[in-house]
Structure formats: structure tokens, C-alpha cells
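Field log, afternoon session.

UNIT: design team B
ACTIVITY: writing a sequence onto a fixed backbone
BACKBONE:
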């Protein structure tokens, strides 16, 4: 009695009005059938079970075979492989490179967002493979060799020579224990073999996720400075490269995915890009994985809001449904507003990736907007998931609920590809080195000029803050928060649900808001916002 039914057998795409609207707006309506199909799969009990099974049975490290030979393999539960088959089979690792057409990045973002709601950990190798292609294209011979394997729809696990595989996945390894985000302090060394571009790499990497990938882009110190290299797990003759796994990381979340510490011992590799310009070479990979951090955060928020609005629509307390109680409805509406703002921003950034090659202003907007969004949305996801969990009470705190897994996963996106401070300072760096990015951002937010007085005041205040931004390192977080909320406000006013936009501007920009969710002003259209975000089930 009085227990909500499981949220199952519904289509995640059909239930997500902000995503459906954004997919069409960003020029990816042609992908609607695929995203719809993924939405159907993501709502099935079988797929939901895969997510739980992959996390209940984490990867296992096997350093040696029974004869004592070093193999450095990580074994995964069958559910992991089912998740990967769907992701790769739907092109989430390669869609824009397979179909370089208008809206391809937006279509891929929507697909990745939908399928990540089933399980987030397996998105790591999917994301890194997607992101490795633009970095690898800086070395045309390597791109010609590897890209055909990276863009197939065949998931082909197992460590074998690339020439014998139907598909390949890529990872990256940059950080070392002594430096972390300060990759220029890396000590891993690359020694030339005498053959053009080939090097032997020796050293350690403190964090290497998805070690079962077929190849990695890594940074190492060559004679000419920090350089990017492609390092395969298996050499063309079938022997294992000098890539040794020291131990698995025991992580807070992301437990279905293996993250490891590795030691490289004369590992064969080949240079990518120019010697001594490794950071510049690999930065395009980082930019694309940062986009996926935003997508992942939006995905976590959406699934949390879906669970909370569903639960409260079926659970009664003190004589009536939770969804009929004014204070609970305020909380639900507040987290729904945050989710919609993030979804629209995510899709706007993906659209900028699609258009940047033809429009310089989109490239400048993407440069600054991505760093802003990476900082802000990844932090907001943590708060949204926590509040959604609390909406369930004790039912949300047990592992049979998906909420604990979402909560453990949420901080990951804020740390991966640069923590909050790194991204906030990157915003200052972008404004200093590329002032066109500030102009592009302001042009974007001013497209809503005159539509909402609260937004207009916030834009005017932001311009005043930007005048002193160059000397404001200690205040970088405050500035980036303001930039993010102004950008989200402008997007919502133009494209979002009017009631959601009004609630956002009143609370986030107009100051009629408390210090926690559930403090929207009384004038908010609470019911319409919640109903827009509550998934309808059969």
C-alpha cells in the first residue's frame, strides 16, 4: 500500500519536452527516429536492469594469466557489454564523424543524454572515442589508419591487433600523481626510436579510465617538450604493449567503469601533432569530453527529476499525494527549472559545435560557453540529485532506488576534464586570450534583450563585472556563476517554456529565491512546470 510503481516502460524521449524542442531547434530533427528508439530502449526494464547489474558487479583486474604471463586485462560483467553494444550500435561514439551533416553533434548529444540516464559509467569510453577523432585528425596518416575503426557501429571488445578488429575504442591518460591537472609537470618520458615519429614511453599515469580501450592518447615529455602520442594496447604483431595496470581505483561512483593506475615500460607509441605542443594537440579531445561532462550532468538532472516527479505523484502522506502539497511542489518545480535550463544550454553548445566551422562567432561562443557550462552545470547536478533523493525520503536512500547511484555519479563530471577551479580560471584565460569570445557571449545573451526586465538588468550587471574580470582571479567562480545564469536565462526566455523562464528569471536573476531548492516565489506556475517534467507512464 502507498508505494509508487516503478518508473519503467516509458519512452524517455517522448517524456522530455525540452529535449524534443531543442533537437528540432538545433537542426537535428532528422535524428528524431533514432533518439526516439533510444528513448524506448532506455525505459525498458531490461535496460534498467543492465545499469544495476553493471554497478553491482564492478570490473575485475587480472594482471597475469595462470601461467604467470603479464596480461593486464580488466573483465566486465555481461551487462556492461550490453550497454556498450547499444551505445556503439547507435553511434554515440562517432555520429558526427560518420554523418558530418548539419545538426550531427546535437543529434549525438541528445542520444548520449538519453542513453546515459540508464547508466553513466559506460559513457566514459564512448565519450573518449568520440573526442579522440578531432585530435587524431591533426596527424592525417594516423587518422587514416584508425578513424575507420573508431567510427564503425561494431562493438568488438578484447585486446587484439587493430587490424583484426571490427571496431576500436580510444581512451586518454594525462594526469600523473605529482601534478594532477598541472600536466606540464608530467615526468613520463618519450625516447625516439630512430624511426620517424615512433617513441618508447616510460613512466606512470595516476588516472587512466577505461583501460580496456584499444589505444590511448597520452602526454609525455619528448626531447622537444610535452608531446601527444598514440599508444596502442596491442602491437601489430599481437604482443602486448608495455602498458601495465598497477591497481584499480576504488571510486566514489562511476563504479561500472574501470579507472586504473598504470605504469608504462618502453611502451611503443607514435607522435600525434607537433613535438612540444602536446597540450594544444590534445585540447580538442578535452573540449569534446567537456561537452560530454555537460551532457552527463544534464542527463543526471533529468533522470533525477523524472524519478522525483513520478514518485511524488503516487506517494501519499498526511492525507494527500506529495505532488499535491504546496511545499513539495515548490521543490519539484525548482529542480525541474534547473533541469530544463541545463538541457537547453547543453543542446545550444552542441549546436555551436555543429556550426563553428562555418561561423566564427559560433566558434568564439563555444570557446567561452563550454568552459562556463562545464563549471556551472556540473556543480548544479550534485545539488539537483541530492534534492530529488530527499523527495523520496528513505526510499531514495536505498540501493534498490537509482538515486544513490545518480548521487555518487554526480560529482564526477565536475572533476573529470578539469575541476571547478580549473574551468573557472579557463574562463578568465579565454577572455584574455580571445576577447572575441566575450563579444560572442554577450551577443548571444542580448538576443533576448527587451523580453524580460530581470534578464536585462542581469545582463547590464554582468557587463559591469566583466570590466574588472582581468584582475578578479579570486572572484572567478562568482563571475562564472553570473555568466552561466545570464546565459541560461536568455536561452530560456527565447526557447523554454514561458512558466519555466519566468520562474528562472524571478529566482536566479531577480533575487526572489532562497539558498536551497523549494524557495521559488509564490507567483510561480508550480503545477504546469511539474507536469511538463513528469514522465507519463502507461
Amino acid at each position: 500500500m502507498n508505494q509508487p510503481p516503478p518508473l519503467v516502460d516509458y519512452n524517455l524521449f517522448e517524456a522530455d519536452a525540452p529535449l524534443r524542442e531543442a533537437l528540432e531547434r538545433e537542426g537535428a530533427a532528422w535524428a528524431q527516429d533514432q533518439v526516439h528508439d533510444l528513448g524506448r530502449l532506455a525505459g525498458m526494464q531490461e535496460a534498467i536492469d543492465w545499469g544495476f547489474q553493471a554497478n553491482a558487479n564492478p570490473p575485475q583486474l587480472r594482471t597475469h594469466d595462470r601461467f604467470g604471463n603479464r596480461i593486464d586485462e580488466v573483465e566486465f560483467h555481461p551487462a556492461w557489454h550490453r550497454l556498450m553494444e547499444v551505445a556503439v550500435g547507435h553511434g554515440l561514439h562517432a555520429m558526427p564523424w560518420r554523418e558530418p551533416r548539419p545538426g550531427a553533434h546535437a543529434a549525438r548529444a541528445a542520444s548520449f543524454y538519453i542513453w546515459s540516464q540508464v547508466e553513466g559509467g559506460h559513457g566514459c569510453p564512448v565519450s573518449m572515442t568520440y573526442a579522440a577523432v578531432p585530435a587524431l585528425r591533426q596527424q592525417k596518416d594516423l587518422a587514416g589508419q584508425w578513424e575507420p575503426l573508431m567510427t564503425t557501429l561494431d562493438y568488438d571488445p578484447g585486446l587484439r591487433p587493430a587490424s583484426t578488429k571490427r571496431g576500436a575504442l580510444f581512451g586518454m591518460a594525462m594526469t600523473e600523481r605529482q601534478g594532477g591537472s598541472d600536466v606540464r609537470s608530467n615526468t613520463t618520458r618519450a625516447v625516439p626510436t630512430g624511426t620517424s615519429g615512433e617513441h618508447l614511453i616510460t613512466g606512470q599515469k595516476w588516472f587512466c579510465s577505461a583501460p580496456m580501450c584499444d589505444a590511448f592518447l597520452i602526454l609525455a615529455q619528448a626531447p622537444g617538450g610535452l608531446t601527444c602520442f598514440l599508444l596502442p594496447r596491442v602491437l601489430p604483431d599481437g604482443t602486448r604493449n608495455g602498458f601495465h595496470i598497477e591497481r584499480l581505483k576504488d571510486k566514489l561512483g562511476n563504479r561500472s567503469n574501470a579507472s586504473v593506475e598504470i605504469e608504462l615500460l618502453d611502451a611503443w607509441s607514435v607522435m600525434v601533432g607537433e613535438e612540444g605542443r602536446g597540450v594544444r594537440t590534445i585540447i580538442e579531445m578535452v573540449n569534446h569530453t567537456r561537452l560530454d561532462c555537460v551532457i552527463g550532468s544534464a542527463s543526471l538532472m533529468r533522470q533525477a527529476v523524472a524519478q522525483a516527479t513520478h514518485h511524488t505523484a503516487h506517494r501519499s502522506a498526511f492525507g494527500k499525494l506529495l505532488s499535491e502539497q504546496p511545499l513539495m511542489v515548490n521543490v519539484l518545480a525548482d529542480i525541474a527549472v534547473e533541469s530544463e535550463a541545463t538541457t537547453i544550454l547543453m543542446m545550444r553548445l552542441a549546436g555551436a559545435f555543429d556550426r563553428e566551422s562555418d561561423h566564427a562567432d559560433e566558434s568564439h561562443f563555444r570557446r567561452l560557453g563550454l568552459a562556463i557550462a562545464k563549471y556551472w552545470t556540473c556543480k548544479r547536478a550534485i545539488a539537483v540529485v541530492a534534492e530529488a533523493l530527499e523527495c523520496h525520503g528513505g526510499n531514495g536512500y536505498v540501493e534498490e532506488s537509482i538515486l544513490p547511484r545518480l548521487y555518487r555519479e554526480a560529482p564526477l563530471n565536475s572533476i573529470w576534464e578539469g575541476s571547478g577551479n580549473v574551468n573557472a580560471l579557463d574562463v578568465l584565460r579565454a577572455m584574455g586570450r580571445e576577447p572575441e569570445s566575450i563579444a560572442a557571449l554577450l551577443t548571444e545573451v542580448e538576443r533576448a534583450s527587451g523580453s524580460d526586465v530581470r534578464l536585462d538588468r542581469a545582463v547590464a550587471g554582468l557587463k559591469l563585472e566583466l570590466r574588472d574580470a582581468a584582475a578578479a582571479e579570486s572572484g572567478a567562480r562568482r563571475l562564472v556563476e553570473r555568466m552561466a545564469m545570464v546565459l541560461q536565462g536568455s536561452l530560456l526566455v527565447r526557447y523554454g517554456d514561458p512558466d519555466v523562464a519566468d520562474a528562472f528569471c524571478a529566482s536566479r536573476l531577480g533575487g526572489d529565491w532562497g539558498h536551497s531548492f523549494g524557495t521559488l516565489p509564490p507567483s510561480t506556475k508550480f503545477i504546469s512546470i511539474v507536469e511538463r517534467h513528469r514522465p507519463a507512464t502507461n
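LOG NOTE: The domain at 280-533 is CATH 1.20.140.10 (Butyryl-CoA Dehydrogenase, subunit A; domain 3).
NEXT ACTIVITY: expression trials, pending approval
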